[in-house]
Automatic annotation (TrEMBL):
Organism of this sequence: Sphingomonas plantiphila
The protein's name: DUF1801 domain-containing protein
Classification via Pfam families: DUF1801
InterPro entries (UniProt xref): YdhG-like (IPR014922)
Residue span, YdhG-like domain: 25-130
């Protein structure tokens, strides 16, 4: 089986954020880092080369594939912020409708800049995602 590339690394989160471009993305990354640390009660850690994660859990699929991943996380990519906070909770759709300008993928929330969204709603989505993860993957 192939080695999982997204795993904790010793890279310093502050050093990584300091190198993020453009400046608005760097500022947004600092804001998200502070918010997700508050929500999770966990210190940030780098997962792979570009994901800032909070906490961890172990998963095992029916296929036998297993690994570890951060409970919540984000990546400040050049084009947009990618937040790993989406769940299969049907109630999340109502919150996303109130969030502001965004796109979604299977488990990813894409935001161009935090100024486009309601931060209180984003924090609510993050808290709900953490509760979902804690219920599905108890610590």
């Amino acid at each position: 089986m192939a080695e999982i590339k997204t795993k904790p690394t010793p890279v310093d989160v502050s050093t990584f954020i300091d190198a993020v471009e453009p400046a608005v993305r760097r500022d947004d990354a600092e804001t998200l880092c502070t918010m997700l640390e508050r929500v999770t009660g966990e210190k940030p850690a780098m997962w792979g080369p570009s994901i800032i994660g909070f906490g961890s859990y172990h998963y095992l699929y029916e296929s036998g594939h297993e690994g570890d991943m951060c409970r919540l996380g984000f990546s400040p990519r050049k084009a947009e912020l990618v937040l790993y906070v989406l769940t299969d909770d049907p109630g999340q759709a109502d919150k996303l409708a109130r969030l502001g300008k965004h796109k979604t993928g299977k488990s990813c929330l894409y935001i161009k800049k935090l100024a486009d969204v309601d931060m209180a709603v984003l924090e609510e989505i993050s808290r709900d995602a953490l509760a979902h993860m804690n219920a599905k993957y108890p610590q």
